[in-house]
Amino acid sequence: MTKDAWEEEGFAKSWDAVNAARDNPDRANQLDLLITLLEGMGPDDGWLLDLGSGSGQVETLIFERMPHARVVCLDNSEEMLKLASGRLSAYDGRYQQILGDMNDLEVVEFPHTPYSAVFSSQALHEIPHESKQAVYQKVYGLLHSRGVFYILDRIEPRFDDLRDEYECVWNRLNRRTDAPMTFNEYRERYDSKEDYPASLDEQLGWLKAAGFLAAPLYLHFNRALIAARKP
Ligand SMILES: C[S@@+](CC[C@H](N)C(=O)[O-])C[C@H]1O[C@@H](n2cnc3c(N)ncnc32)[C@H](O)[C@@H]1O
Predict the structure, then answer these.
(1) What is the mean pLDDT of residues 89-115?
(2) Total domains, the chain
(3) Atom of ligand 1 nearest to the CA of 101
(4) CATH number, domain at 197?
(5) Closest CA to 58 of 121, 152, 101
(6) CA–centroid distance, residue 161 to ligand 1 (Å)
(7) 30 lines ligand 1 (CB under 6 A)
(8) For the whole prediction, is pTM greater than 0.90?
(9) Containing structural domain, residue 83
(10) pLDDT in tens, 12-46
(11) Among 16, 33, 48, 80, which residue has the most ligand 1 atoms within 8 Å of its CB, making it the best to mutate?
């Protein structure tokens, strides 16, 4: 089993340049949905929080589309935060980076709390289930009342149970891709990864246990966007 090497410059750069889209051919659509939800909150004086913010691809879209938005960006990879600083140089003052570990948010001092929205894109599968549950409880405490938590992430697939159907949908997702990975390559890559995608039911159960109202708004192949609201 191999763990993604976010701390290595080469790995970080290659994910940023190629693999973000190659591993997830519908990523642009998913991010559009996430940002449409954030836009739908309307202008706000507060800051947003991004957990596992990476190389700043999501913030670029947010800053282009939401002229008032400001984002606290938490990640535990200095290489990814460095890539983000380069990408976001035109947006000084609109983001604040924190080098922090989602496995231990209790030691993090969060600026600009409480938040009206917290979000996380393609990052929560990196931490074990117990940590995810602790993150959901922490996020609940960081939000305003009626604040929202949007989770876009890879969920646990059932490749063994429904192999042909997964292959069919993977090929359909890649029908406009120039050099797609075959389904077998994709499977091998993910079967050998040391990470922790949870099932949709588990995610919804943990969010509800933390006090959120929660529902999935998007589910395609092994990707989901879950919306949760603090009542
Ligand atoms: C697949 S990238 C997604 C980046 C960004 N959210 C996006 O969608 O473009 C996953 C990110 O999670 C970060 N990450 C992984 N484990 C983490 C942890 N324990 N605490 C904080 N960040 C973590 C990685 O460094 C990486 O930047």
Answers:
(1) 97
(2) 1
(3) 20
(4) 3.40.50.150
(5) 121
(6) 29
(7) no
(8) yes
(9) 9-229
(10) 999 998 888 889 999 999 999 999 999 998 877 78
(11) 80
